[in-house]
Amino acid sequence: MELPIFKYHPDPIKTGAIEVTSATCECCGIAQGYRATSTIYAEEEIKTICPWCIANGSAAEKFDGEFTDSHPLLKSGLDKTIVKEVCERTPGFNSWQQEVWLSHCNDACEFHGDAEKLDLLEITGATLKTVLEKQKINQNLWQEIVASYEKGGNPSVYKFKCRICGMKTYAVDFA
User: Fold this and answer.
1) 3-state SS track over the chain
2) Which residues form the domain of 115?
3) Are residues 39 and 11 in the same domain?
4) Which residue from 32, 56, 75, 121 has the highest number of Cβ atoms inside 10 Å of its Cβ?
5) Do 116 and 133 reside in the same domain of the chain?
6) At a CB cut-off of 8 Å and minimum separation 6, what does 3 contact?
7) Residues 33-73 pLDDT 10s
8) Are residues 21 and 74 in the same domain?
């Protein structure tokens, strides 16, 4: 069975947002073979939601929840239909603190998972300046992060890519 396509999270298996399971989806009641690894923010504690119930919006509707905090995207001025697509129809990601989904060119960015150390070494110039300003990190701290960075460690650096211009951008998250 082919997984649904998520335009803001193009490879959820690779990022670890979707995993193989034999568990039954708590939304549709079917063991689809896959589940989201991140949480839906809802009143109930839900452990297993299949990618199809995420993609069609039924999980967000049934549990009155979101897979990603909508506030940062709304604050950036994105159209509410884009925010709804990311927060209610796209698998989220696990982070140390509250996840922040980035945007650029008046659209939400694609999520590409934990950055590789090589990604961090390649951030320079205007891109580095933007990352440091948005993340409120000074140059010295950034150099320490890069020097000791381990993918999946603390701090985590999440890689995003603008769907419009292709620019890569990053969110830094500390435990």
Assistant:
1) CCCCCCCCCCCHHHHCCEEECCCCCCCCCCCCCEEECCCCECCCCCCCCCHHHHHCCHHHHHHCCECCCCHHHHHCCCCHHHHHHHHHHCCCCCCCCCCCCCEECCEECEEEEECCHHHHHHCCHHHHHHHHHHHCCCHHHHHHHHHHCCCCCCCEEEEEECCCCCCEEEEEECC
2) 103-175
3) yes
4) 32
5) yes
6) 12, 13, 18, 34, 51
7) 999 998 898 998 999 999 999 999 999 999 999 999 999 99
8) yes
Return the pLDDT at 35. 96
Which of 45, 75, 94 delimits the end of a domain?
94
Residue 123 CA to residue 170 CA, distance in Å, equals: 9
pLDDT tens-digit map of 107-145 = 999 999 999 999 999 988 888 888 888 888 888 999 999
Answer yes or no: is pLDDT of 175 > 70: no
Whether this prediction's pTM lies above 0.85 is answered by: yes
